[in-house]
Amino acid sequence: MIFLSWLDFLQERACRLWRAWSNRKMVKIKQIENNNVPYELLYLADEDDGQIMKYKESSTFWAAMDNEEIIGIIGINELNNHSAEIVCVAVDSEHQNNKIATRLIEKAISVSKDKGYKEIIIKTGNSGIKQLHLYQRCGFRFDSVNKDYFIKNYKNPVYENDIQCLDQIILKYKIYSQKELNKIIKDYWNGFVNTNEKYRDSKYEVWSFGYTDNLANRLLGYVKNGKKTGTSSALEMYEMDEKIPEVDDISIITNGKGLPGCIVKTIEIKKKKFKEITEVEARLEGGDDLSLDYWRNVHEDFFRSEYEKKGKVFTEDIPVIFEIFEVIYDRDKK
What is the pLDDT, as a whole number, of residue 97? Predict the structure, then answer.
């Protein structure tokens, strides 16, 4: 009975993950006018009308749209030429737990980078457990605490997760220039070769996993803790002058901000058809539930999209490059 229950759990989790992935395709993020921002969503982020009025007219809003319905919002307020603040993030209760808030924050980060900001600030209460988890997962770090903020600035006591909201927690997301990143990466590489002299003259590439900052952070974490030791790519998607992965390739893997997280070395390359990927190989990729079904669903959707962009047709016979790698340097490990 325990074994059957565990199988049921895995199947249910796989279905939930796939529903979230499917919702990602249907939900679109677009900018909306301030007068179109639904108050019912603003109230999910902040119950105080006075606090809402401080930012509603001066902020830029983006919405998560399910067809023509607004199911989530994020507001961005420029503080100065170098800083912006995310003033609210809210998702309709029926659409929560589908990574919509993550996508909205990713949009805010992307917009802030395009505008040349150096940092993004976001604030929440000490009782916002889910919010604190979400913001850190998206790359924000604790900066400071404004003690008794909610007592001094709100008319009525605020409770969340059975905890009174007393203090304001301020988090920041630093945006690095390419010049700054180049120096940081060079210093990281020098730190590696100073203790691994045989690699001093080796060439290396710098890249991240995934197609969003949050996914890059998550997959880097899987690599660093040993859960992910493989990756796959569609051979036909490489450009004529683009290097195809080979055994002994050295790569610096970065997080979503472009900061180095570890250095890996490719130890095995397999070229096979999409439909030939095995359960073992899917597990090496370190996906959410480590199953072949999940791997096939996620990669088919991604590859199909990439093929369509190039005017090609995806089939299960497309050639896939499957790499197996090992971590050869992680400065965080003592």
Answer: 85
